[in-house]
User: What shape does this take?
Amino acid sequence: MAAALTRPHRDDVHIALGGLLGGLLLWSVGLFPRTPGDGLVLWSPAWAALLPLAVTAGCELLRRTRPRTGLLIGVLMLTVDTVTRGNVVTIVMFTDLVYAAVLYGTPASARRIPWITGLLTVLGALVPLALWRTPEAILIGVAVGVVALAPAATGWIVRNHRDAAEAARLRAEQTALLAEMDRTQAVTSERARMARELHDMVANHLSAIAIHSTAALSLDDPKTSRDALSVIRENSVEGLAEMRRLIGILRDAGGDTEPVAAPTLDGLDALVDGARTNGLDVTLDAACGTVPAPVELAAYRIVQESLTNALKHASPGPVGVAVAQRDGCLTVAVTSPFGGDREGPRAPGSGAGLVGMRERVALLGGDFEAGPVQDPDSVDGKIWAVRATLPVTEGDRE
Assistant: This one.
């Protein structure tokens, strides 16, 4: 793994080979930037220029993996090159090492190298000018700027653009991830809402159908069978109407097709009458004013599901439904007999009804409780109580 991380990049190998071959070509034709008679040439043999050329070409292999090391060796080789007859390709490769050190180096190196090269450029112009008192001395600073400052500044600009592009890419990925999470959450919430609506609308009618059909099949009494079939037919028609309403909600309204209005608290009387038809002894005490539509729908569904559970599981006895509005909250309470043996058929339960009621109340920021409670007036000393408290905000009923 370490060998794979330090292996030179393929492009760096091409750059190193190209620079070495180009420098050898210039050396072979005798094209040198300085002559033995120049005052800076301390090492005059022609072959001396090959040493910094070869080492600088080797440094090009480190331009991505070890850019700072390559630059430090390159500085040393550039110094050696200045005391020989020199090679233009060595200088060109050095500028690339400066550029690579800023672009591929650490953030600290990327910040410091432009400042260092800028300072050297200024000193390269001012110090010779102060010593020689000739305008031509400024050209030394220009040369330092071309060889060091220009590639460092270019690397800094390219690095900034690269970092900005990477940041934009990461932001785009995060935005796409958040959008996908929002979409998934929206789909999950919508599926949960559809499951609650479907369960609350259909379970009541299907439970009554299951109980009365079982009674009709088990009792050899024509009158009882006719009564059971009447209840079955009534619940089938009402269940079909509820299913059509749900389909109307799910389907886009268009033309003359519009979904049926959602049930309101005004329909509690009809809901209780249906429960009585199914054999429950229900009393209703509803005293509430205008409440928002979501609260109204939740309260209706809680009463509906509670009556369904009473039909499926409760022992014989009175079932109480109380809906009251006070202190900025709508309170829904449904009590039914608990415990003991129930005569007659039962309908199986899945537990989804309690989950649905709890979810409805939680979405509105209310409180929900369901379970057996002590009641000295009941036969077994306990009743099953469902109690929901829904916050009410100001608004007209829709």
Observations:
- The radius of gyration is 44 Å.
- Residues 253-259 have pLDDT under 50 and may be disordered.
- The longest strand covers residues 382-391.
- The chain has two domains: 2-174, 267-398.
